[in-house]
Amino acid sequence: VQLVESGGGSVQPGGSLRLSCGGTGFNIRDSDISWLRQAPGKGHQWIAGTSADGTSQYRDSAKGRFITARDNTHNTMDLQLNEIVPEDTGVYYCATEGAWGQGTQVTVSS
After folding, report:
1. For strand 76-81 and strand 90-96, is the pairing parallel, antiparallel, or unpaired?
2. What is the pLDDT of residues 81-104, one digit of tens each?
3. How do residues 21-32 score in pLDDT, each as one tens digit?
4. 41 in the Ramachandran plot: left (φ > 0), alpha (ψ -120 to 50) or beta?
5. Positive or negative: CA dihedral 48, 102, 16, 85
């Protein structure tokens, strides 16, 4: 089981970014997938998650701004970040039971 994130980068406040999490060795559609963030100098913080049944949940600060999207054809779980704010800066990880990706950096700066 492996997860690989991509799509991070630098973005201005108010902008958008789409992160992608690709899975190998298992089917994302059959798994609960979480997105977590580690801000500079802080621990990991759960941001959003999508269950195998397709139900998604979001941290309060992400509600209305972030959206998860599962692509069964490509075995990916994306995280769309909209209306980005400086506090969204950090390394974003996707995770499932027993596996984490290596993370992708998101930097919000004007």
Report:
1. unpaired
2. 999 999 999 999 999 998 999 999
3. 999 999 999 999
4. left
5. positive
